[in-house]
Amino acid sequence: VQLQASGGGLVQTGGSLRLSCAASGFYFSGYWMFWVRQAPGKGFEFVSGIHPRDGTTRYADSVEGRFTVSRDNAKNTLYLAMNSLKSEDTAVYYCSRDSWGTMRGQGTQVTVSS
After folding, report:
1. Could you tell me if 111 and 50 are in contact, meaning their C-beta atoms sit under 8 angstroms apart?
2. DSSP state, 84?
3. Distance between CA atoms of residues 53 and 31, nearest Å
4. CA 88/CA 71 separation, integer angstroms
5. Rama region for 10: left / alpha / beta (φ>0; ψ in -120 to 50; rest)
6. Residue pLDDT, tens place only, 51-94
7. What is the DSSP letter of 54?
8. SS3 of residue 110 by DSSP
9. I want to staple 51 with a disulfide (CB 3.0 to 4.6 A). Which of 20, 27, 40, 56 is the partner?
C-alpha cells in the first residue's frame, strides 16, 4: 500500500491550496478515504473523509465550509481543496485509509503565514 500526498506549500492567510494523494497497492475504489493532519507538537487530527462510491463526505467542524474533499477512482487519486486558509491550518497533511491516521502515507507540509 502506498499513499503519497503532494501539493502543500507556503500560503498567506486567506489563500488556497489543492492537495492530491496518489494511491496504489490496494483497491482504492472500495475504501473510504480520509485526510488527517498533524500540527507541530500535536497529535493526528481528522480533517475529512469521502465514501468510495456515492460521494458522501465528512468534515471536521474546524474546516467545514472551507475545505472540499473529492476523489477520482479512475486515477486512484484523492483531493483536498482548501480555501480561506488560517494559521491554525498549518500542519503536515496526510491521506489515510482510516480516520485516525494509522494507515497514512507520506505527508505534505502546509504552512499558512499571517
Report:
1. no
2. S
3. 9
4. 25
5. beta
6. 999 999 999 999 999 999 999 999 999 999 999 999 999 999 99
7. S
8. strand
9. 56
